[in-house]
Amino acid sequence: MLISKFKLETNEDISNEMEKALCVQLPQKYKIFIDRYNGGETPDTNWTGKGKTDVRGFYGYDNANDYWDIKEHRTETFLSELLVRGFLVIAENSFGDMFCMKLEDETVWIAYHDSSKMVAIADDFEKFINGCKSKKIGHISTIEERKARLIANGHGDKLSENMLRGWQEEIEKYSKLVQEEVVI
After folding, report:
1. Residue 129: its H or E element
2. What's the mean pLDDT in 171-179?
3. Among 15, 56, 120, 136, which is 20 to 30 Å from 182 by CA?
4. Which of 84, 109, 77, 111 shows the shortest CA–CA distance to 97?
5. By C-alpha distance, which of 84, 133, 132, 87 is closest to 107?
6. Where are the domains of the chain?
7. CATH number belonging to the domain at 2-135, selected among 3.30.930.10, 3.40.1580.10, 3.20.20.300, 3.40.47.10
8. Is-above-0.85 flag for pTM?
9. ∠ at Cα 86 (82, 88), nearest 5°?
10. Which helix (H) or strand (E) holds 5?
11. Rounded distance, CA 26 to CA 115, Å?
């Protein structure tokens, strides 16, 4: 699996800080992952096992991206209820469903955001990571290329300032991502 990690500096204590703040004992492989990557974005990544779905990104702890920071979200009802039940939220798909690790036995589950349904999908964190397959980000189309495609497909009338702003934000985001293979 490829990840664009949130961790920029060397800090072997991230997982220890996380354990103290959440009052949990993290599995060893997950601690290695947090200390090495501290979560990250995973564009064009899919879980290929039971309950196939995309994997949008992994949560970290005390990182610069508040959306993916467990420290910022730990008091939210959904996440705190899962933690009370022994599940740590580790990742999310594009639908808002959460990938969770049951701390007692290290199994990985998917918790559906719109129901109370949870399904076990992997025997442990390492098997979950190994079941996630990514594609390398390739060429990022320029605004001019996107405009040309839109017009060529007969949709030039759909072009708007909002669309152009969205394209520019996407180009800036993906051009800055550096993907690397996850090793735990």
Report:
1. helix 125-130
2. 91
3. 120
4. 111
5. 87
6. 2-135, 143-176
7. 3.40.1580.10
8. yes
9. 60
10. strand 2-5
11. 26
As a whole number of angstroms, the distance between CA 21 and CA 63 comes to: 14
The residue behind tokens 């049951």 is 102
Say if residues 101 and 108 touch (Cβ distance below 8 Å): yes
DSSP label at residue 41? E
Please count the other Cβ atoms lying within 10 Å of the Cβ belonging to residue 33.
26
Question: 161: burial class by Cβ within 10 Å (0-12, 13-18, 19+)?
Answer: exposed
Return the bridge partners of 89, or none.
Answer: 100
- Measured distance CA(15)–CA(25) in Å, rounded: 10
β-strand 118-122 against 132-134: which pairing, if any?
unpaired
User: Over 70: is that where the pLDDT of 11 sits?
Assistant: no
The angle formed by the CA atoms of residues 43, 49 and 53, to the nearest 5 degrees, is 40
In angstroms, the CA 107 to CA 109 distance is: 7
Bridge partner list, 13: none
